[in-house]
Amino acid sequence: xxxxxxxxxxxxxxxxxxxxxxxxxxxxxxxxxxxxxxxxxxxxxxxxxxxxxxxxxxxxxxxxxxxxxxxxxxxxxxxxxxxxxxxxxxxxxxxxxxxxxxxxxxxxxxxxxxxxxxxxxxxxxxxxxxxxxxxxxxxxxxxxxxxxxxxxxxxxxxxxxxxxxxxxxxxxxxxxxxxxxxxxxxxxxxxxxxxxxxxxxxxxxxxxxxxxxxxxxxxxxxxxxxxxxxxxxxxxxxxxxxxxxxxxxxxxxxxxxxxxxxxxxxxxxxxxxxxxxxxxxxxxxxxxxxxxxxxxxxxxxxxxxxxxxxxxxxxxxxxxxxxxxxxxxxxxxxxxxxxxxxxxxxxxxxxxxxxxxxxxxxxxxxxxxxxxxxxxxxxxxxxxxxxxxxxxxxxxxxxxxxxxxxxxxxxxxxxxxxxxxxxxxxxxxxxxxxxxx
Amino acid sequence: xxxxxxxxxxxxxxxxxxxxxxxxxxxxxxxxxxxxxxxxxxxxxxxxxxxxxxxxxxxxxxxxxxxxxxxxxxxxxxxxxxxxxxxxxxxxxxxxxxxxxxxxxxxxxxxxxxxxxxxxxxxxxxxxxxxx
Lengths: 437, 132
Known about the structure:
The complex is a heterodimer.
Chain A (H helix, E strand, L loop, with lengths): L1 E7 L11 E6 L5 E5 L3 H9 L10 E3 L5 E3 L2 H14 L3 E5 L5 H14 L2 E4 L6 H10 L6 H7 L2 E5 L3 H4 L3 H6 L15 E5 L5 H4 L3 E3 L6 H12 L7 E2 L2 E2 H13 L2 E6 L1 H4 L5 H14 L4 E6 L6 H12 L5 E2 L6 E2 L6 H6 L5 E5 L3 H4 L2 H9 L2 E4 L5 H4 L3 E3 L10 E4 L5 E4 L12 H16 L2
Helix pairs in contact in A: 2-18, 3-13, 3-18, 4-12, 9-10, 9-12
Chain B lengths: L4 E8 L2 H9 L4 H7 L1 E4 L1 H7 L6 E6 L2 E9 L8 E5 L23 E7 L8 H10 L1
Parallel strand pairs in B: 1-5, 2-4
Antiparallel strand pairs in B: 1-6, 3-4, 3-6
Helix pairs in contact in B: 1-2
Protein backbone atom coordinates (compact mmCIF):
# COMPACT_ATOMS: atom_id res chain seq x y z
CA UNK A 1 0.00 0.00 0.00
CA UNK A 2 0.99 3.60 -0.41
CA UNK A 3 -0.14 6.91 0.98
CA UNK A 4 -0.35 10.38 -0.54
CA UNK A 5 1.11 13.36 1.29
CA UNK A 6 -0.43 16.67 0.19
CA UNK A 7 0.73 20.31 0.38
CA UNK A 8 4.37 19.33 0.02
CA UNK A 9 6.82 22.20 -0.56
CA UNK A 10 9.20 21.85 -3.51
CA UNK A 11 12.87 22.49 -2.66
CA UNK A 12 14.09 23.46 -6.10
CA UNK A 13 13.63 27.11 -7.07
CA UNK A 14 12.63 30.32 -5.32
CA UNK A 15 9.01 29.86 -6.38
CA UNK A 16 8.79 27.34 -3.52
CA UNK A 17 5.56 25.71 -4.79
CA UNK A 18 3.61 24.37 -1.83
CA UNK A 19 0.96 22.25 -3.53
CA UNK A 20 2.88 19.11 -4.45
CA UNK A 21 1.48 15.67 -3.79
CA UNK A 22 3.96 12.94 -3.04
CA UNK A 23 3.14 9.23 -2.96
CA UNK A 24 5.21 7.26 -0.46
CA UNK A 25 5.21 3.66 0.70
CA UNK A 26 3.25 2.84 3.84
CA UNK A 27 6.38 2.56 5.96
CA UNK A 28 7.51 6.03 4.82
CA UNK A 29 10.81 4.72 3.50
CA UNK A 30 10.24 4.81 -0.26
CA UNK A 31 9.14 7.76 -2.38
CA UNK A 32 7.08 6.41 -5.28
CA UNK A 33 5.67 9.34 -7.26
CA UNK A 34 5.37 13.12 -7.34
CA UNK A 35 2.54 15.12 -8.85
CA UNK A 36 1.91 18.84 -9.45
CA UNK A 37 5.66 19.52 -9.58
CA UNK A 38 7.52 20.83 -12.63
CA UNK A 39 9.93 18.46 -14.38
CA UNK A 40 12.89 19.76 -12.37
CA UNK A 41 11.14 19.59 -8.98
CA UNK A 42 9.86 16.08 -9.68
CA UNK A 43 13.35 14.95 -10.63
CA UNK A 44 14.76 16.39 -7.41
CA UNK A 45 12.34 14.28 -5.34
CA UNK A 46 12.85 11.15 -7.44
CA UNK A 47 16.65 11.43 -7.52
CA UNK A 48 16.68 11.12 -3.73
CA UNK A 49 15.65 7.51 -4.37
CA UNK A 50 18.51 6.73 -6.76
CA UNK A 51 20.16 3.35 -6.18
CA UNK A 52 23.63 4.77 -6.74
CA UNK A 53 23.22 7.52 -4.14
CA UNK A 54 26.13 8.03 -1.74
CA UNK A 55 25.19 7.38 1.88
CA UNK A 56 28.56 7.66 3.61
CA UNK A 57 31.12 10.46 3.77
CA UNK A 58 34.22 9.83 1.68
CA UNK A 59 37.74 11.17 2.09
CA UNK A 60 40.29 11.65 -0.70
CA UNK A 61 43.35 9.36 -0.59
CA UNK A 62 46.75 10.63 -1.68
CA UNK A 63 46.42 8.84 -5.02
CA UNK A 64 43.15 10.66 -5.71
CA UNK A 65 40.86 7.71 -4.96
CA UNK A 66 38.17 7.85 -2.26
CA UNK A 67 37.73 5.93 0.99
CA UNK A 68 34.58 5.79 3.10
CA UNK A 69 34.79 7.45 6.51
CA UNK A 70 32.34 7.96 9.37
CA UNK A 71 30.46 11.21 10.01
CA UNK A 72 32.61 11.60 13.16
CA UNK A 73 35.82 11.47 11.13
CA UNK A 74 34.29 13.85 8.59
CA UNK A 75 33.39 16.33 11.35
CA UNK A 76 36.90 16.01 12.86
CA UNK A 77 38.50 16.78 9.49
CA UNK A 78 36.18 19.73 8.80
CA UNK A 79 36.71 21.25 12.26
CA UNK A 80 40.49 20.91 12.04
CA UNK A 81 40.55 22.38 8.54
CA UNK A 82 38.51 25.39 9.62
CA UNK A 83 40.41 25.88 12.89
CA UNK A 84 43.78 25.75 11.11
CA UNK A 85 42.79 28.24 8.40
CA UNK A 86 43.72 31.90 8.61
CA UNK A 87 40.92 32.94 6.28
CA UNK A 88 38.43 30.16 5.49
CA UNK A 89 35.60 30.65 2.99
CA UNK A 90 32.23 29.12 3.91
CA UNK A 91 30.22 29.16 0.71
CA UNK A 92 26.82 27.98 -0.52
CA UNK A 93 23.96 27.88 2.00
CA UNK A 94 21.16 28.26 -0.56
CA UNK A 95 20.00 24.65 -0.82
CA UNK A 96 19.59 24.08 2.87
CA UNK A 97 17.19 25.27 5.55
CA UNK A 98 17.47 28.38 7.73
CA UNK A 99 18.18 26.23 10.78
CA UNK A 100 21.39 24.92 9.16
CA UNK A 101 22.26 28.43 7.95
CA UNK A 102 21.99 29.66 11.51
CA UNK A 103 24.37 26.99 12.85
CA UNK A 104 26.73 27.85 9.98
CA UNK A 105 26.65 31.51 11.01
CA UNK A 106 27.70 30.53 14.56
CA UNK A 107 30.62 28.56 13.12
CA UNK A 108 31.53 31.49 10.87
CA UNK A 109 31.63 33.88 13.82
CA UNK A 110 33.71 31.47 15.91
CA UNK A 111 36.43 31.05 13.29
CA UNK A 112 36.25 34.46 11.58
CA UNK A 113 35.16 33.07 8.22
CA UNK A 114 34.27 34.67 4.91
CA UNK A 115 30.58 33.85 4.52
CA UNK A 116 29.05 33.97 1.07
CA UNK A 117 26.00 32.44 -0.57
CA UNK A 118 24.98 31.71 -4.16
CA UNK A 119 23.59 35.23 -4.56
CA UNK A 120 27.20 36.07 -5.36
CA UNK A 121 26.71 34.49 -8.83
CA UNK A 122 22.95 35.12 -9.06
CA UNK A 123 21.20 38.14 -7.54
CA UNK A 124 24.14 39.60 -5.62
CA UNK A 125 24.07 42.65 -7.85
CA UNK A 126 20.36 42.99 -7.03
CA UNK A 127 21.17 43.09 -3.33
CA UNK A 128 23.73 45.85 -3.98
CA UNK A 129 21.18 47.84 -5.97
CA UNK A 130 18.49 47.44 -3.31
CA UNK A 131 20.93 48.81 -0.73
CA UNK A 132 21.64 51.74 -3.06
CA UNK A 133 18.11 52.76 -4.01
CA UNK A 134 15.58 50.71 -2.00
CA UNK A 135 12.95 48.43 -3.52
CA UNK A 136 9.20 48.78 -3.96
CA UNK A 137 8.11 45.14 -3.76
CA UNK A 138 5.16 42.97 -2.80
CA UNK A 139 4.26 39.33 -2.22
CA UNK A 140 3.42 36.79 -4.90
CA UNK A 141 -0.07 36.59 -3.41
CA UNK A 142 -0.59 40.25 -4.30
CA UNK A 143 0.62 39.54 -7.82
CA UNK A 144 -1.83 36.67 -8.19
CA UNK A 145 -4.78 38.66 -6.87
CA UNK A 146 -4.09 42.12 -8.29
CA UNK A 147 -1.56 42.28 -11.12
CA UNK A 148 -2.79 42.90 -14.66
CA UNK A 149 0.61 43.60 -16.19
CA UNK A 150 3.50 41.17 -15.87
CA UNK A 151 6.97 41.97 -17.14
CA UNK A 152 9.77 39.40 -17.21
CA UNK A 153 12.99 41.29 -17.80
CA UNK A 154 16.08 39.20 -18.61
CA UNK A 155 14.49 36.01 -17.37
CA UNK A 156 12.99 32.90 -18.88
CA UNK A 157 10.55 31.50 -16.30
CA UNK A 158 9.29 28.78 -18.66
CA UNK A 159 12.69 27.15 -18.15
CA UNK A 160 14.09 28.47 -14.89
CA UNK A 161 10.95 28.80 -12.73
CA UNK A 162 8.55 26.55 -14.65
CA UNK A 163 5.45 27.04 -12.47
CA UNK A 164 5.91 30.73 -11.70
CA UNK A 165 3.55 31.86 -14.44
CA UNK A 166 0.85 29.30 -13.67
CA UNK A 167 0.88 29.77 -9.89
CA UNK A 168 1.43 33.48 -9.41
CA UNK A 169 1.82 35.76 -12.39
CA UNK A 170 0.05 35.04 -15.69
CA UNK A 171 -2.51 32.29 -15.38
CA UNK A 172 -4.09 32.12 -11.92
CA UNK A 173 -7.51 33.66 -11.34
CA UNK A 174 -7.26 35.87 -8.28
CA UNK A 175 -9.57 38.13 -6.27
CA UNK A 176 -9.28 41.09 -8.65
CA UNK A 177 -7.99 39.07 -11.60
CA UNK A 178 -10.92 36.76 -12.26
CA UNK A 179 -10.17 36.51 -15.99
CA UNK A 180 -6.79 34.89 -15.41
CA UNK A 181 -4.39 35.34 -18.31
CA UNK A 182 -7.05 36.97 -20.50
CA UNK A 183 -7.06 39.94 -18.18
CA UNK A 184 -3.29 40.31 -18.07
CA UNK A 185 -0.64 41.71 -20.39
CA UNK A 186 2.67 39.87 -20.58
CA UNK A 187 5.84 41.67 -21.66
CA UNK A 188 9.11 39.75 -22.00
CA UNK A 189 12.41 41.57 -22.47
CA UNK A 190 15.07 39.19 -23.77
CA UNK A 191 17.65 39.15 -26.59
CA UNK A 192 16.65 35.55 -27.43
CA UNK A 193 13.38 34.17 -28.76
CA UNK A 194 12.80 32.22 -25.57
CA UNK A 195 9.83 30.00 -24.82
CA UNK A 196 8.64 32.66 -22.38
CA UNK A 197 8.93 35.33 -25.09
CA UNK A 198 6.90 33.16 -27.47
CA UNK A 199 3.78 33.50 -25.28
CA UNK A 200 4.25 37.21 -24.53
CA UNK A 201 1.88 39.88 -25.78
CA UNK A 202 4.93 42.06 -26.37
CA UNK A 203 8.50 40.78 -26.78
CA UNK A 204 11.06 43.55 -26.52
CA UNK A 205 14.06 41.95 -28.17
CA UNK A 206 16.68 44.10 -26.54
CA UNK A 207 20.24 44.04 -27.85
CA UNK A 208 22.25 41.87 -25.49
CA UNK A 209 23.78 43.92 -22.68
CA UNK A 210 21.83 47.10 -23.48
CA UNK A 211 19.15 46.77 -20.83
CA UNK A 212 20.30 49.94 -19.07
CA UNK A 213 19.66 52.01 -22.20
CA UNK A 214 16.21 50.52 -22.67
CA UNK A 215 15.23 51.07 -19.05
CA UNK A 216 16.52 54.60 -19.29
CA UNK A 217 14.50 55.12 -22.49
CA UNK A 218 11.34 53.99 -20.68
CA UNK A 219 11.92 56.66 -18.05
CA UNK A 220 12.22 59.23 -20.84
CA UNK A 221 9.03 57.91 -22.45
CA UNK A 222 7.07 58.08 -19.16
CA UNK A 223 7.81 61.79 -19.13
CA UNK A 224 6.83 62.23 -22.79
CA UNK A 225 10.31 63.44 -23.72
CA UNK A 226 12.05 62.85 -27.05
CA UNK A 227 13.76 59.54 -27.80
CA UNK A 228 16.21 58.62 -30.58
CA UNK A 229 14.67 56.50 -33.37
CA UNK A 230 16.03 53.25 -31.97
CA UNK A 231 17.25 52.44 -28.45
CA UNK A 232 18.92 49.11 -27.65
CA UNK A 233 17.50 47.65 -30.85
CA UNK A 234 13.91 48.68 -30.06
CA UNK A 235 12.13 51.31 -32.25
CA UNK A 236 11.02 54.36 -30.27
CA UNK A 237 7.34 53.81 -31.22
CA UNK A 238 7.43 50.46 -29.43
CA UNK A 239 9.05 52.01 -26.36
CA UNK A 240 6.37 54.74 -26.18
CA UNK A 241 3.66 52.07 -26.61
CA UNK A 242 5.00 49.89 -23.81
CA UNK A 243 5.57 52.91 -21.56
CA UNK A 244 1.95 53.96 -22.05
CA UNK A 245 0.70 50.44 -21.30
CA UNK A 246 2.77 50.35 -18.13
CA UNK A 247 1.35 53.68 -16.96
CA UNK A 248 -2.18 52.53 -17.65
CA UNK A 249 -1.87 49.18 -15.88
CA UNK A 250 -3.88 48.75 -12.69
CA UNK A 251 -1.06 46.93 -10.95
CA UNK A 252 2.11 45.86 -12.68
CA UNK A 253 5.13 43.83 -11.64
CA UNK A 254 8.62 43.60 -13.07
CA UNK A 255 10.22 40.21 -12.44
CA UNK A 256 13.86 40.24 -13.41
CA UNK A 257 16.54 37.61 -13.83
CA UNK A 258 20.12 36.93 -14.78
CA UNK A 259 19.79 38.83 -18.05
CA UNK A 260 20.27 42.02 -16.08
CA UNK A 261 22.23 40.86 -13.03
CA UNK A 262 25.02 39.07 -14.92
CA UNK A 263 25.64 41.40 -17.87
CA UNK A 264 27.89 44.42 -17.81
CA UNK A 265 26.44 47.31 -15.82
CA UNK A 266 25.32 44.65 -13.30
CA UNK A 267 23.92 46.41 -10.20
CA UNK A 268 23.33 49.59 -12.22
CA UNK A 269 20.87 47.68 -14.43
CA UNK A 270 18.89 46.90 -11.30
CA UNK A 271 19.26 50.45 -9.95
CA UNK A 272 17.50 51.82 -12.98
CA UNK A 273 14.92 49.01 -13.13
CA UNK A 274 13.97 49.99 -9.58
CA UNK A 275 13.88 53.66 -10.64
CA UNK A 276 11.52 52.70 -13.48
CA UNK A 277 9.28 51.02 -10.91
CA UNK A 278 9.46 54.06 -8.67
CA UNK A 279 8.56 56.35 -11.61
CA UNK A 280 5.53 54.21 -12.43
CA UNK A 281 4.16 54.65 -8.93
CA UNK A 282 3.55 58.29 -9.89
CA UNK A 283 0.84 56.98 -12.24
CA UNK A 284 -0.29 53.60 -10.90
CA UNK A 285 0.85 50.77 -8.62
CA UNK A 286 4.00 48.93 -9.70
CA UNK A 287 6.32 46.49 -7.95
CA UNK A 288 9.58 44.77 -8.77
CA UNK A 289 10.89 41.38 -7.67
CA UNK A 290 14.03 39.33 -8.36
CA UNK A 291 13.47 35.80 -9.68
CA UNK A 292 15.54 34.07 -7.00
CA UNK A 293 17.07 30.77 -8.10
CA UNK A 294 17.86 28.34 -5.28
CA UNK A 295 14.84 27.60 -3.12
CA UNK A 296 16.38 29.14 0.00
CA UNK A 297 18.92 31.66 -1.26
CA UNK A 298 16.49 34.32 -0.02
CA UNK A 299 16.51 32.63 3.42
CA UNK A 300 20.27 32.71 3.53
CA UNK A 301 20.19 36.47 2.96
CA UNK A 302 17.46 36.84 5.60
CA UNK A 303 19.37 34.83 8.23
CA UNK A 304 22.59 36.76 7.66
CA UNK A 305 20.60 39.97 7.42
CA UNK A 306 19.28 39.55 10.94
CA UNK A 307 22.51 38.06 12.33
CA UNK A 308 25.15 40.20 10.62
CA UNK A 309 23.30 43.02 8.89
CA UNK A 310 24.39 41.96 5.40
CA UNK A 311 22.84 39.41 3.01
CA UNK A 312 26.00 38.01 1.33
CA UNK A 313 29.76 38.60 1.06
CA UNK A 314 30.07 38.81 4.85
CA UNK A 315 33.65 39.08 6.15
CA UNK A 316 33.85 37.98 9.81
CA UNK A 317 37.66 37.80 9.93
CA UNK A 318 38.03 40.92 12.12
CA UNK A 319 35.63 39.73 14.80
CA UNK A 320 32.77 41.85 13.49
CA UNK A 321 30.81 41.77 10.24
CA UNK A 322 32.21 43.68 7.26
CA UNK A 323 30.70 43.74 3.79
CA UNK A 324 32.41 44.76 0.58
CA UNK A 325 31.40 42.88 -2.60
CA UNK A 326 34.39 42.85 -4.91
CA UNK A 327 36.63 42.29 -1.91
CA UNK A 328 34.69 39.90 0.33
CA UNK A 329 32.96 38.03 -2.53
CA UNK A 330 33.81 34.38 -3.18
CA UNK A 331 35.15 34.64 -6.72
CA UNK A 332 37.31 37.66 -5.96
CA UNK A 333 38.65 36.02 -2.80
CA UNK A 334 39.45 32.81 -4.67
CA UNK A 335 40.98 34.37 -7.77
CA UNK A 336 43.22 36.60 -5.63
CA UNK A 337 44.25 33.60 -3.51
CA UNK A 338 43.09 35.27 -0.29
CA UNK A 339 41.38 32.27 1.31
CA UNK A 340 43.22 29.19 2.53
CA UNK A 341 40.34 26.67 2.77
CA UNK A 342 36.80 26.30 1.44
CA UNK A 343 33.79 24.74 3.13
CA UNK A 344 30.97 24.27 0.61
CA UNK A 345 27.41 23.41 1.64
CA UNK A 346 24.13 23.45 -0.30
CA UNK A 347 25.67 24.59 -3.58
CA UNK A 348 27.93 23.52 -6.42
CA UNK A 349 30.56 26.17 -7.15
CA UNK A 350 32.52 23.56 -9.13
CA UNK A 351 29.82 23.71 -11.78
CA UNK A 352 28.77 27.33 -11.45
CA UNK A 353 31.89 29.38 -10.72
CA UNK A 354 34.25 30.51 -13.49
CA UNK A 355 36.88 27.84 -13.94
CA UNK A 356 39.71 30.00 -12.56
CA UNK A 357 37.97 30.00 -9.16
CA UNK A 358 37.47 26.21 -9.30
CA UNK A 359 41.17 25.79 -9.99
CA UNK A 360 41.99 27.82 -6.89
CA UNK A 361 39.61 25.66 -4.83
CA UNK A 362 41.64 22.64 -5.92
CA UNK A 363 44.83 24.18 -4.54
CA UNK A 364 43.52 24.56 -0.98
CA UNK A 365 41.75 22.18 1.45
CA UNK A 366 38.11 21.82 0.49
CA UNK A 367 35.10 20.16 2.15
CA UNK A 368 31.89 19.65 0.20
CA UNK A 369 28.60 18.89 2.00
CA UNK A 370 26.16 17.80 -0.70
CA UNK A 371 23.89 14.80 -1.33
CA UNK A 372 25.07 14.59 -4.96
CA UNK A 373 28.30 13.83 -6.78
CA UNK A 374 29.13 17.17 -8.40
CA UNK A 375 32.00 18.97 -10.11
CA UNK A 376 32.75 20.47 -6.67
CA UNK A 377 33.48 16.98 -5.35
CA UNK A 378 36.24 16.71 -7.99
CA UNK A 379 38.22 19.39 -6.12
CA UNK A 380 37.11 18.35 -2.60
CA UNK A 381 39.25 16.51 -0.06
CA UNK A 382 36.16 15.41 1.85
CA UNK A 383 32.66 14.83 0.51
CA UNK A 384 29.85 14.59 3.05
CA UNK A 385 26.52 13.38 1.63
CA UNK A 386 23.55 14.47 3.73
CA UNK A 387 19.76 14.14 3.77
CA UNK A 388 17.78 16.21 1.23
CA UNK A 389 16.12 19.22 2.85
CA UNK A 390 12.46 19.39 1.85
CA UNK A 391 12.41 15.65 1.10
CA UNK A 392 14.01 13.85 4.04
CA UNK A 393 14.03 16.66 6.59
CA UNK A 394 11.88 19.78 6.96
CA UNK A 395 12.92 23.28 7.93
CA UNK A 396 12.31 26.90 7.10
CA UNK A 397 12.86 28.33 3.62
CA UNK A 398 12.13 31.79 2.22
CA UNK A 399 10.29 32.21 -1.08
CA UNK A 400 11.53 34.80 -3.61
CA UNK A 401 9.13 37.38 -2.13
CA UNK A 402 10.71 36.86 1.33
CA UNK A 403 7.74 34.88 2.67
CA UNK A 404 8.96 32.10 4.99
CA UNK A 405 7.50 28.67 4.27
CA UNK A 406 8.07 25.55 6.35
CA UNK A 407 9.21 22.65 4.18
CA UNK A 408 8.18 19.11 5.10
CA UNK A 409 9.81 15.76 5.45
CA UNK A 410 8.05 13.23 3.21
CA UNK A 411 10.31 10.20 3.37
CA UNK A 412 13.04 8.81 5.62
CA UNK A 413 16.67 9.39 4.64
CA UNK A 414 18.67 6.19 4.02
CA UNK A 415 19.64 4.60 7.31
CA UNK A 416 22.53 6.28 9.08
CA UNK A 417 22.43 9.51 7.06
CA UNK A 418 22.32 12.80 8.92
CA UNK A 419 21.14 16.30 7.98
CA UNK A 420 23.09 19.47 7.15
CA UNK A 421 22.13 20.91 10.53
CA UNK A 422 23.24 17.82 12.44
CA UNK A 423 26.58 17.72 10.62
CA UNK A 424 27.18 21.43 11.20
CA UNK A 425 26.40 20.98 14.90
CA UNK A 426 29.00 18.19 15.06
CA UNK A 427 31.56 20.50 13.46
CA UNK A 428 30.58 23.34 15.81
CA UNK A 429 31.00 21.16 18.92
CA UNK A 430 34.48 20.17 17.82
CA UNK A 431 35.45 23.75 16.99
CA UNK A 432 34.24 24.93 20.41
CA UNK A 433 36.50 22.32 22.02
CA UNK A 434 39.48 23.31 19.86
CA UNK A 435 38.94 27.00 20.61
CA UNK A 436 38.17 26.32 24.30
CA UNK A 437 34.83 28.14 24.29
CA UNK B 1 34.73 23.57 -43.21
CA UNK B 2 37.27 24.97 -40.84
CA UNK B 3 35.85 28.46 -40.89
CA UNK B 4 36.17 30.47 -37.72
CA UNK B 5 33.37 32.70 -36.50
CA UNK B 6 33.23 35.28 -33.74
CA UNK B 7 30.21 35.32 -31.44
CA UNK B 8 28.75 37.07 -28.42
CA UNK B 9 28.21 34.29 -25.87
CA UNK B 10 25.57 34.20 -23.17
CA UNK B 11 24.77 31.44 -20.70
CA UNK B 12 21.87 30.63 -18.41
CA UNK B 13 19.31 28.09 -17.35
CA UNK B 14 17.35 25.67 -19.54
CA UNK B 15 14.79 23.17 -18.35
CA UNK B 16 16.94 20.33 -19.70
CA UNK B 17 19.86 21.72 -17.69
CA UNK B 18 17.71 21.77 -14.55
CA UNK B 19 16.25 18.28 -14.96
CA UNK B 20 19.55 16.62 -15.83
CA UNK B 21 21.34 18.50 -13.03
CA UNK B 22 18.89 17.14 -10.47
CA UNK B 23 19.21 13.64 -11.98
CA UNK B 24 22.97 13.70 -11.32
CA UNK B 25 25.66 15.94 -12.75
CA UNK B 26 27.97 12.98 -13.26
CA UNK B 27 25.53 11.38 -15.71
CA UNK B 28 25.70 11.61 -19.55
CA UNK B 29 22.31 13.38 -19.67
CA UNK B 30 23.84 16.45 -17.95
CA UNK B 31 26.63 16.55 -20.54
CA UNK B 32 24.06 16.21 -23.34
CA UNK B 33 21.98 19.06 -21.88
CA UNK B 34 24.80 21.50 -21.11
CA UNK B 35 27.81 20.51 -23.21
CA UNK B 36 26.25 22.25 -26.20
CA UNK B 37 26.29 25.62 -27.91
CA UNK B 38 23.07 26.84 -29.48
CA UNK B 39 23.70 28.79 -32.67
CA UNK B 40 21.71 30.50 -35.38
CA UNK B 41 21.30 28.39 -38.54
CA UNK B 42 23.25 31.03 -40.51
CA UNK B 43 26.24 30.67 -38.19
CA UNK B 44 26.14 26.88 -38.47
CA UNK B 45 26.22 27.35 -42.23
CA UNK B 46 29.15 29.75 -41.95
CA UNK B 47 31.04 27.12 -39.99
CA UNK B 48 30.31 24.67 -42.81
CA UNK B 49 29.10 21.98 -40.41
CA UNK B 50 26.01 19.93 -39.76
CA UNK B 51 24.06 20.29 -36.55
CA UNK B 52 25.46 17.98 -33.91
CA UNK B 53 29.08 18.53 -34.94
CA UNK B 54 31.49 19.22 -32.13
CA UNK B 55 33.09 22.66 -32.08
CA UNK B 56 35.76 24.38 -30.02
CA UNK B 57 34.69 27.55 -28.25
CA UNK B 58 37.55 29.81 -27.19
CA UNK B 59 37.63 33.09 -25.32
CA UNK B 60 40.36 35.14 -23.66
CA UNK B 61 39.59 33.15 -20.53
CA UNK B 62 39.65 29.54 -21.71
CA UNK B 63 38.54 26.96 -24.23
CA UNK B 64 36.09 24.04 -24.33
CA UNK B 65 34.69 21.50 -26.80
CA UNK B 66 30.89 21.40 -27.05
CA UNK B 67 28.32 20.19 -29.56
CA UNK B 68 26.86 22.79 -31.93
CA UNK B 69 23.10 22.71 -32.38
CA UNK B 70 20.56 25.10 -33.79
CA UNK B 71 18.91 26.92 -30.93
CA UNK B 72 15.95 25.18 -29.34
CA UNK B 73 14.98 28.72 -28.46
CA UNK B 74 16.24 30.72 -31.43
CA UNK B 75 19.32 32.84 -31.01
CA UNK B 76 20.13 35.59 -33.48
CA UNK B 77 23.02 35.46 -35.89
CA UNK B 78 26.20 36.43 -34.09
CA UNK B 79 25.03 35.13 -30.74
CA UNK B 80 25.83 31.84 -29.00
CA UNK B 81 24.18 30.19 -26.00
CA UNK B 82 25.77 27.60 -23.71
CA UNK B 83 23.56 26.49 -20.78
CA UNK B 84 25.03 27.35 -17.39
CA UNK B 85 27.45 24.74 -16.09
CA UNK B 86 31.11 23.71 -16.17
CA UNK B 87 31.34 23.91 -19.99
CA UNK B 88 30.18 27.53 -20.18
CA UNK B 89 32.33 28.37 -17.19
CA UNK B 90 35.50 27.35 -19.02
CA UNK B 91 35.09 30.37 -21.31
CA UNK B 92 33.03 33.02 -19.50
CA UNK B 93 34.59 36.24 -18.26
CA UNK B 94 35.49 35.93 -14.55
CA UNK B 95 35.87 39.68 -14.08
CA UNK B 96 33.44 40.90 -11.40
CA UNK B 97 34.17 44.63 -11.78
CA UNK B 98 34.09 44.88 -7.97
CA UNK B 99 30.54 43.57 -7.66
CA UNK B 100 31.37 39.94 -6.85
CA UNK B 101 29.47 38.85 -9.96
CA UNK B 102 31.45 37.31 -12.81
CA UNK B 103 30.35 38.36 -16.31
CA UNK B 104 28.42 35.26 -17.35
CA UNK B 105 26.69 37.00 -20.25
CA UNK B 106 28.17 38.94 -23.13
CA UNK B 107 31.55 37.26 -23.67
CA UNK B 108 33.37 37.47 -26.99
CA UNK B 109 34.25 33.98 -28.21
CA UNK B 110 35.48 32.34 -31.39
CA UNK B 111 34.05 29.06 -32.62
CA UNK B 112 35.82 26.57 -34.89
CA UNK B 113 34.68 23.11 -36.01
CA UNK B 114 36.37 20.26 -34.16
CA UNK B 115 34.56 17.09 -35.27
CA UNK B 116 37.20 14.86 -33.71
CA UNK B 117 37.02 16.65 -30.34
CA UNK B 118 35.21 14.97 -27.46
CA UNK B 119 32.59 16.63 -25.31
CA UNK B 120 33.73 15.70 -21.82
CA UNK B 121 31.47 14.86 -18.87
CA UNK B 122 31.04 17.50 -16.18
CA UNK B 123 33.57 15.80 -13.92
CA UNK B 124 36.04 15.28 -16.78
CA UNK B 125 35.82 18.89 -17.89
CA UNK B 126 37.00 19.95 -14.41
CA UNK B 127 39.73 17.29 -14.34
CA UNK B 128 40.93 18.32 -17.80
CA UNK B 129 41.13 21.96 -16.74
CA UNK B 130 43.02 21.12 -13.57
CA UNK B 131 45.58 19.13 -15.56
CA UNK B 132 46.39 22.07 -17.85
